[in-house]
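Supplementary Methods, section 5.1.

A reviewer requested that the exact input to the structure prediction be made available. We therefore reproduce it here, unchanged from the version used in the analyses.
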Amino acid sequence: MNNNQAMYLDPDEEILWQGQPDHRLFLIGGEDFLLIPFSVIWMSATIWGLGVTAAQPTGFPTTMMILLFFFVGVYLTIGRYIFDAQARRRTLYAVTNKKAYILELSRQRRLQVLPIRPNTPVELFEGHLGFVRLGRGPEPNNPTISLWFGGDGTFSFRALDDPRTVYSIIKKIQAEQGVG
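The structure derived from this sequence is encoded token-by-token as follows.
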């Protein structure tokens, strides 16, 4: 966080770690093994519908509906990766001696702050570009529509090169507060 972002800190807070998610365009996660085939099937059916409509014009409402399905398919196939990469490029993370911060620098600044307490659940997900989730996550095997829009709606430092470092810092803060 630079001086402008430091204005969000309390006077007695000290930044222990700061970073950003990976900026690459295609970050493939486990859920993509279902979403990618679905989006390809969606696009195939839509392109077939466009072909049928071009060969035998069916009227304006039908053509518009097929075009709507086409643009939704483009988003599902490639657009969601582009929007997610742009969001990650404008996201900053920080851990202080008291709190965790996620700052999203879009049209409006969106600041999420989570106090780090001894009983705050912390989960480490290692692997290629792992993440650290603070607080309760979604129930396992209960995917939500947010999978199509990047993220799962939880307080997470995602797409990190070294999530274990962040996890260790948070666990150390909790240990210093009395519970680890």
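The first helix runs from residue 3 to 6. These observations are discussed further in the main text.
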